[in-house]
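Hi support team,

I submitted a single chain yesterday and got back a structure, but I'm not sure I'm reading the token output correctly. Could someone confirm the output below corresponds to the sequence I sent? I've pasted both exactly as they appear in my results page.

Thanks,
R.
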Amino acid sequence: MKWFKLSTRDVAFVAVFAALSVIIIKFIPGFPVIGLSDSSIKFDAALAPIYGLVLGPYLGFLAAFIGGIVVANSGFSVLTSFSPAISALIAGLLTQRNYRSRSHSFPGWAMAAAVLGFLILGWYVTWVGQQAPFYPVLHIGGLLAIVVTRGWVATAFNKGERKEKTWTAKPSYLLSGILILVLAYILPKPYLSSLEFLPYLSLPLYFLGGIVVLYGLFNRGIGKGNFAAAICLASYCGIIADHMIGNLAYITLFSPPPEIFMTVLPVSAVERSIFTAIATVIGVGLVLALRRAGLFSREL
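Hi R., thanks for writing in. Yes, this is the structure output for that exact sequence:
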């Protein structure tokens, strides 16, 4: 990408995505960070890879970082502002055939692998990482997936089905999603307060319902699944990179015991899977919609 050829559309997308991150961080609750009562993992983590898919690695990084740094109010939140930014960077690199400098060209997947590999190495440099060597299993899995698939992600992303010209929603999915959203709204009501566990199901059901509705709306034009799979893999690798930066920031500022990381590993796996599912469904729909509207112009 050539920075001096920014279009008005690029600037508008950066502003819109940065503003979206600010709104999500400030007004939508996230997952609590174990050991930090005043911090939470916000759902902008699920949207950050989409910034890279739509804007490319560099503008995606910029949009996600601006959104995070604007609302940062502590040393920890300043450091973790880089988490969604790196997520967007990796997703953008994986869906870009080549990274070009003035004199060299490198495969986008190789650059993404280098960034993620560096973060994994950073884990093992810390004393906590040396005491919990099996913790980065999710991250190593993502790195192996990049190395194995290599340029396939960029190829599948670029060849995403563009022939389908009409939207065909799936009414059954739309109805199911709406019913799930209604259930999520009802669960916290006072007349159900005798069942103490029900309110805790509300937030997951909101996101599940949203995913089902989005799938019902944007289920066409995915070809044989390669396009959706490419977005899923790019999103996953970005999201686990986000996760590792958060871990390293946590270790740097608070020196937590190594045991806490292995204890929460299953929770982290579920959490990152949810984020990946959200990013995949929204990413597929948004990229296809922008392509059909003629608004998708990033370098591939």
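A quick pointer for reading it: Residues 3-168+220-292 form one domain. Let us know if anything else looks off.

Best,
Support desk
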